[in-house]
Amino acid sequence: MIDPAIDPENIAAAPLDFRWSPRGKGLQTVLRVFDGERLIDTDTIDLGKKTKRDDYAARLAEEHGIPAEDVEAELLRITNERSAANEPPPPLPEDDLAEQTRAALEQTDPEVQAEASRLLEDPALIDRIEADIEAAGVAGEHDLRLTLYLVGTSRLLPRPLAAIVQGQSSSGKSFTVERVAKLFPPEAVVLATQMTPQALFHAPPGSLSHRWVVAGERSRIENDDRAEATRALREMLSGGRLTKMMPAKVDGEIQTVTIEQEGPIAFVESTTSARVFEEDANRCIMLSTDERRSQTKTIMRRLALVASGKIRSDESRVVARHHAMQRLLERRSIVIPFAERLAELLEVFADRVECRRAYPMLLALVQASTLLHQRQRKTDQDGRLIAEPADYAVAARLLSGPLARTIGESLSDPARRFLDRLLAEVDDPIDPMPAPFSAKDVRRRLKTGQSTTNAYLAELEDKGFLDRADPAPTGRGRPPKAWKPTGRDGAGVDVLPPACEMFPEGSPQKTEKIHPPQPR
User: How many CB atoms lie within 10 A of CB 36?
Assistant: First the structure.
């Protein structure tokens, strides 16, 4: 109660201003009543309870002479405003993304838009994209950066791609992801440096559909709690939508409500961990940064050229061109005439259930390349784009290694290089490293960190490149784990043959009538 000496008759005659602010959960609200600029009353009440509203109106009438019906009318208005503030944002219209894209194109510099159109029609489109990514600051990492670009483009497909980029700290994985994502228009990308387990469920309805979700660094913790935390992500990647039933308070009562979140999404995250929870890993293309000495020299050389002024790049122009190009892309149905031939390629690995996920990844990357080249691809009688051998060539170049790893036939590139160094130490003609060896022996000889060494040794053992050996007794406590080589080298398996072997005739068998691209 504020200033009881105020004359109630004067207050009742003057226009009053009721102001409110939320407090806590539900409809708990702080109310302030002003006479002009003078505060005459303040209180906190639960607007969701009629008895509380009635008591408040009665008190103002008694203490300040304000008619109860006037207070009740104000409380009703405030309750409606407060309730609206508590409601989730309204669903985005299905064509909201398309509308944003059209509006952005209308505001795009006509010259930039013309550049983007020419780029989409350029037969050397892939080479041009790689050059632009390098101009945006990514030196080297040719396969990684192009794969990421196609992952982002795949957001427009019915079943987009997902990827996890692995690499040691400071290897440039986050930088590469960030730079490639910058080439995509803001309405197409959802940046999420960190995601809680329920984040996808509670995003604004429709805000994820056909977006590229660019997450940050993945947690190094891999346990049952972490697996549960990423379950929603796995469901979105597999099914393209989320559905969750949960209790919620509706009109003062606890009721079960259904939350639905429509996808699909393209996805990428990075991690320093060499081991990723299997259920997450087999839904994603597992990519690695190039940690070789030659890549470090490439990065340093480019930084030196930029610092010395010998490289000048109009990055803003490159970004604007790619924003326009991605906005010009249309969602199109795509057919792959050689899909059965692709299935036959993987049949030799059919005893591995991982092939059931590897094959859709291959199809999706072929489709992403076709979609990117939509102005250069022919259509069938139903207006669907037809994938060409060139699209397979892109997929074979980028996916042969990752798919071999997915189906368990090969190591990751960093682990393979680790094995090469390890075997070189074991076979050193002057000072060979004795086998069996412990993780400490390996760290000392290869000068690698503890977590990196342990992770690679575990991967090499899992894939059959190292065998567990009986450790040498130390005389005190439990002896450390020890390993010995199995005799296998790190040579990869060619899961996908090059396009010249896949299509020796120069083009796939055409099973449908083909029409030339339609003018736009």
Answer: 10
**Residue 364 CA: distances (Å) to CA of 115, 239, 293, 325, 371:** 27, 15, 33, 20, 10
Count, residues in the chain:
520
- Residue scoring higher pLDDT (133 or 233): 133
Please state the φ and ψ torsions of residue 213, each to the nearest 5 degrees: -85, 115
Tens digit of pLDDT for each residue in 458-513? Answer: 888 877 888 888 766 655 667 788 888 888 776 666 678 888 888 887 644 443 34
Share of the chain above pLDDT 70, in %: 84
328's CB contacts (< 8 A; 6+ apart) are 105, 113, 116, 117, 120
Q: Measuring CA to CA, which residue among 334, 367, 373 is closest to residue 125?
A: 373
Domain residue spans in the chain?
8-86, 96-331, 413-485
The two three-digit tokens of residue 262, written as one number: 């429509």
Residue (of 179, 107, 113, 124) closest to 317 by Cα position: 113
Pair of tokens at residue 397: 């170049």
Fold agreement (96-331, 413-485): no
The bridge status of strand 379-380 relative to strand 253-262 is unpaired
Q: Which two tokens stand for residue 2?
A: 């504020």
Return the amino acid letter for 519.
Answer: P
Q: Is the peptide bond before 22 cis (omega within 30 degrees of 0)?
A: no
How far is the C-alpha of 482 from the C-alpha of 467, rounded, in Å? 9
Q: How many helices (H) and strands (E) does the chain have?
A: 20, 16
pTM reported for the whole predicted model: 0.73
For the segment 366-382, what is each residue's pLDDT rounded down to a tens digit? Answer: 999 999 999 999 999 98
pLDDT at 506: 60
Where b means 16+ CB within 10 Å and e means fewer, 167-191 reads: bbeebbbbbbbbbbbbbbbebbbbe
Average pLDDT, the chain: 81
Which tokens is 178 given? 């960030």
Q: In this structure, which CATH number among 1.10.10.10, 3.30.70.140, 1.10.150.130, 3.40.50.170 belongs to the domain 413-485?
A: 1.10.10.10
Do the Cβ atoms of 220 and 269 come closer than 8 Å?
no
- pLDDT attached to residue 364: 95
Measured distance between the N- and C-terminal CA atoms of the chain, rounded to whole angstroms = 71
The amino acid sitting at 336 is I
- The CATH code of the domain at 96-331 is 3.40.50.300
- With residues binned 3-state (H G I as helix, E B as strand, rest as coil), the percentages for the chain, rounded to 5, are 45, 15, 40
Indicate whether 359 pLDDT > 80.
yes
